[in-house]
Every structure is written in structure tokens, then in C-alpha cells.
Amino acid sequence: MFNYVKESYNELVNKVTWPTFPQLQSSTIVVMVASVIIANVLLAMDLSFENLMALIYKVLGGFGR
Description:
Strand content: under 5%
Largest sheet: none
Number of strands: 0
Order of helices and strands: HH
Distance between the termini: 73 Å
Number of helices: 2
Helix content: over 70%
């Protein structure tokens, strides 16, 4: 177990290429913009489905009487 931790630490320190701060900022902005776009698409889909279901219930609601 100790050998595993030692090798993992060695790999993280010596073999992993960590991003620079500007690269990290750029990636963060990309993720934030993508999240906002996906949230807006889901909102539009949700509202469309809600309106479609309201229309269906309104049309079919008259048949039960």
C-alpha cells in the first residue's frame, strides 16, 4: 500500500503536465458558457413540452364530458 501511494505521488509530481493558469481560465469560461447554453436549451424544451401538454389536455378535456 505504501509503495502504491509513493508511486502515485511520484507520477503526480513528475509525470503529469498541469495546465497553466491562463489555460485553466480559458477552460473554465468554456465550461461556463456551455453550461448556460445547455440550461437554456433545456428550459426551452421544458416550456415547449409544458405548452404542448396543456394544449393536449385542453383539447382532450372536452371529450370527457
